[in-house]
Amino acid sequence: MNTFLNNEKLKVENIKKNFGDTEVLENVSLSVKEKEFVSILGPSGSGKSTIFNIVSGLLKPDCGTINIDGKDFTGKTGRVSYMYQRDLLLPWKKIIDNVAMPLVLKGEKKKKAREEVNKYFHIFGLEGFEHKYPFQLSGGMKQRAALLRTYMFSQDIMLLDEPFGALDAITRSKMQLWLLDIINDLNASVVFITHDIEEAIFLSDRIYILSDKPAVIKEEIIVELPKKRNKDIITDKKFNELKKYILEIL
Ligand SMILES: Nc1ncnc2c1ncn2[C@@H]1O[C@H](COP(=O)(O)OP(=O)(O)OP(=O)(O)O)[C@@H](O)[C@H]1O
């Protein structure tokens, strides 16, 4: 009867987290459907990374639950992939071995792991760079390699914590277009943290607005823009109305 529940991948229910006397998450609930792109937008220090640490199992919430595909994963690691704000590649390893690392860590032989990741180099715009070292890549390429490594860890749910935050404006804009372009082929559900309202609207199907800490979800916004987007949409009336609305809430 309920189609939403049927294609729900991730469900975060009533999580609460204090660090000592500091109440960081007061009560946060959110959900992500199959192949959905959901952003979490909130002020600095509001607890966005803490939510990811809890969803990935690195931290235990004081209360609340994390369900994935209907199973309880509260406090359990290894199920979702997680890309940090500064997800550095190992400088002494070739790109192919950096990317293959999650598979090797899971017990795959190096040769097999390389074969497995090789087929994704084209889609991630890294073809021809398999045997280069990180210092030989541009900033955008390094982020694409880090994103591919994240994808190799777990392909169906990816947590991306400001992956483009450190890039210059032009590269960042190109990366947003690229991500939007490939995301359908990846069949992944994505949760994306950003401070950038335009980035959130441009990329997302839905946006959760987080309050200052102690954090609660202030609002859930469905981005009713065509799924296929290009940068022209930034001048669209609906896009700008949404941007103004979010600015007022934040
Ligand atoms: N392990 C920890 N121990 C103590 N306090 C912590 C810990 N982790 C986070 N905090 C505190 O919790 C609050 C939220 O931090 P968090 O990194 O989740 O925020 P954020 O929204 O991701 O911030 P930013 O946007 O600046 O990255 C901050 O006040 C931070 O100092």
Automatic annotation (TrEMBL):
GO MF term set: ATP binding; ATP hydrolysis activity
Pfam families from the UniProt entry: ABC_tran
Keywords noted in UniProt: ATP-binding, Nucleotide-binding, Transport
Family matches, as Gene3D superfamilies: P-loop containing nucleotide triphosphate hydrolases
Domain ABC transporter span(s) in chain numbering: 10-237
Keyword field contains Lipid biosynthesis: no
The UniProt record lists the keyword GTP-binding: no
UniProt cross-references to InterPro entries, sorted A to Z: AAA+_ATPase, ABC_transporter-like_ATP-bd, ABC_transporter-like_CS, ABC_transporter_ATP-bind, P-loop_NTPase
UniProt-recorded name of the protein: ABC transporter ATP-binding protein
Source organism per UniProt: Oceanirhabdus seepicola
